[in-house]
Amino acid sequence: MKKNKLFISGDEAIAIGTKLARPHVIAAYPITPQTIAVERLSDMVENGELQAEYMHVESEHSAISAAMGASAVGARTFTASSSQGLVYMAEGLHYASGGRFPIVMMNANRSLALPWSIYGDQRDSLGLLDSGWIQVYAEDAQEALDMIIQAYKIAEHPKVLTPIMVNIDGFILTHTYEMVEIPEQEAVDAFLPPFETPNKMSFEEPKNMGFSSQPIDNTEFKYQQDRAILYAHKIIEQTDAEFDKAFGRKYHGMVENYRCDDADQIIVTLGSICGTTRLIVDELRNQGEKVGLLKIRYMRPFPEKEIQELTANAKAIGVLEKNISFGYEGTVYTNVNSAIAKTGKRPYLKNFVGGFGGRNISKDDIRKMFTTLKTQEKTENTVEYFNLNVATDERR
Amino acid sequence: MKEIRWHGRGGQGGFTASRLLGIAAGMFEDKHALAFPSFGPERRGAPVLAFTKIDDKKIHDRSEVEQSDYVVIMDETLVNEELANGIAPNATILINSSGDRTFDALSKFNIITIDATSLALDILGRPITNTAMFGALVGASGLVSIESATNSIKHEMKPGLVDKNVQIVEKAYEMIKKQTV
């Protein structure tokens, strides 16, 4: 039997990663497909494996509120949600980032109603990109576990003090079992020292927290918040390098360059679909095609410089996302396009949109995307809904 | 990569079987595996699917299984025309059957039957056929060794269930080995 390895689901990997980070308070409300993660944590608290307060709150809005309260007194806090739960939490997300509470949250990426769907896409978290949280997307269960541990280190850095949302694709990651290496508790303790908040709510040193502001100072608060997330860029890279030293695994910080260096066609994407794309990149490379995958790991802070560098010599770039900003284009595309536009170069750019509400993205879908990029097929629209089952599209 | 599709009814343990195979390959052999259910709510008695992917290298492919190399059917009443879709031409299909039925819808594939229900009733006293079908698949496919298969039972199941299920896996394995020699 393999040592320190388990065959577990993405939800279970999140729960184990959280346990290893030794949170003091977990406040969460269960929602498919996040449920197993919080059930496992609840079990761990119940059987004494994890010394923490598990708060069975009555809603996601309360979950984030409780997490902020606990964080204010210096507790390391965890919450988890998905989809409707995440958007129910939305008001609190801004409070948490504005209040500079370094909460770590797992979000199981899932579609938003209507139509009601429990299945996966990325519209929930990408729709909340402007809530002031750092957002990271994992490709597999190992990365999910490792990112919970890294997330606390980044979020709690005194110059960052910003909450982090660790996103994993609903079902494709949350409910798929795979081999995951479980770090030793002692190694995690050495990597992640106990949390000490510089802004502690205490009787000894009273402070005004959760206050209001006036026009004369609000901009400065928002400026500082923005600077902190931009600064996180450096801490993200540093933390990943330290993690590699401690555990022998690294994720390359903001983005992963998979065979992009001499690539003519690059697909930029995020989350579990990077896996299937990686496979097709290898397949096409074996056929002599110069293709690559640019895996976005962090959407905030945004890897502008990395994207500019890695796409500098590409002839065509496709952005693949399970998301649309209705009435325009995919949000990931808007961000990538903005980064590339600043270089003055105009390669062929395409936004591949689909995989909504759990629809499979097949190997053949990805092969076709690379063909579109290679032939630089001229179309009226930048956005291409791939694998669409209707004959006409009203607007376009 | 080998892809396995499991057909059962909610409550029969099809997803557990898909995971046992993944554990046998991943924990007890130098292989990589993914196991996942057909996503969504499960209802007792309703047809449910589960999948296992096994490979010698890390499995990056997160797309749905399109061409199964092995199909395991834990309840013969689930067999219909539609079930023949998405199966590789040279695939092997294992069916839990008492022997009187024919499976015309699947006749172009290599079919192996085993009376898993009787086996489960004999040893377990309950018609839970997932471990018998797991043993049968291991016998027919050689995807993992019989030792890894029984180790996965010891690793995953509650102590009280281990002995009888190990016995079932071994017995089903032998029954298939005799058939396929």
Q: How many angstroms separate the termini of chain B?
A: 25 Å
Number of strands of chain A: 15
Please state the second-level CATH architecture of the largest domain in chain A. Answer: 3-Layer(aba) Sandwich
- Fraction in helix of chain B: 25-40%
Work out the radius of gyration of chain A.
21 Å
The outline of chain B comes out as: globular
CATH classification, class level of chain B: Alpha Beta
Largest sheet of chain B: 6 strands, mixed
What do we call the CATH topology of the largest domain in chain A?
Rossmann fold
- Give me the CATH fold name of chain B: Pyruvate-ferredoxin Oxidoreductase, domain 3
Q: Which range does the strand content of chain A fall in?
A: 15-25%
Multimeric state of these chains? heterodimer
> C-alpha Rg of chain B, in Å?
15 Å
CATH superfamily of the largest domain in chain A: Thiamin diphosphate (ThDP)-binding fold, Pyr/PP domains
Shape of chain A: globular
Q: Could you give a short account of the major beta sheet of chain A? A: 7 strands, mixed
Count of alpha and pi helical runs of chain B: 5
Averaged pLDDT of chain B, please?
Answer: 94
* Count of β-strands of chain B: 6
Stretches with pLDDT under 50, minimum 5 residues of chain A = none
Structural class of chain B: alpha/beta
